[in-house]
Design brief:
By secondary structure, the protein is mostly helical. Helices cover about 50% and strands about 10% of the residues. A three-stranded parallel sheet has the order 2-1-3, covered by helices on one side.
Amino acid sequence: MFLCDIIYDMRIAVIGPQNTGKSTFIQDFLKEFPHYVTREETYRDIVENNNLEVNQKTTTESQKAIRDFIFGELRHNTDYNVLFDRCLIDNFVYTSVAYEAGTIPKWFLDETEGMMKDTLQLVDMYLFIPTAVSIPL
């Protein structure tokens, strides 16, 4: 059995910390598996278009905008052979860190956790890129 036989009719989310090569991996993946697609608009567009503070400066407003965008992508894009750049696991992790830092309220963390759990079954495979290393296809 070949990898291309396995990677068919799936919804795949690429997850992991920032600046680890997820977007590069996605571009390389799409070249190797042209039957897959990814959305033109990503959560980065939401951040940029709305001038949102993220990472250590994130706010509830920023996390909500990103979360709601990703949630909508997962819930409304029901096609197969789709590659998602991030999912609500990523958003929940960033929200949890902000909660621990005292910048996000508990109710928002709980709400995000519920939404994350609701979308877990909408993805067939989660590819975790843990560090900025090259992963050959």
